[in-house]
Amino acid sequence: MPIDRIRQAVADVGCGAIASHRSAAFLWGLIPEPSVADLIVPRAHRPRPRPATEIHRPRALDVGEISIRAGIRCTNPLRTLADLGAVEPGWVDAALTAAAVSRLVSPSAAAAALERLSVRGRLGLGPLRAALADWPCGIDEPDSELEVLMGRCSKTRRSPDSYFTRSSRDSRSTLPMPLVASLSRPMGMSTTRLDRRSRATGGGMPPSLRQVGS
User: For residue 131, which of 163, 160, 99 has the smallest C-alpha distance?
Assistant: First the structure.
């Protein structure tokens, strides 16, 4: 089992080793199973090299940045997101979304942690900074990855923010009408041609989009 492999790597290195970077991100459910076990050890400790294990000796690691997941000591979600960019920058964006949807980390908390860690002169924070800059405004506790995706699409198209409402019976999204129109328009077809075709067929938007846009 992948978790057992991480647990064994921590035990083999010993001397206060904790799972970090990719290993911690996997334990928190933020990324797929990595091929390498990342461990943080005290700077004075120099364990012998081990296959598929990468050792890290950061200048600082606060006690509050250490947690336990699946019975394994590891960095907490905030610290994990900050560290992940140093080894897998391409995974940070998706990891931030997963952390926000699962309520492990809010984007506002990640932004505050980024400012605090930047003072220390840490490396690898660029990917997290970029992911936060691309985060849709007003969505600090998303209910799904789709909500984040639509918020980013709305932000890119410079249309009004997406509003997502939840009822007791179902979960529906209300999209900005300019965005709905652009999504429903076939590739290469102008708005005028689409209107003519809609009047001719008596349709308008597809049923699924009419329900969302109503």
Answer: 99
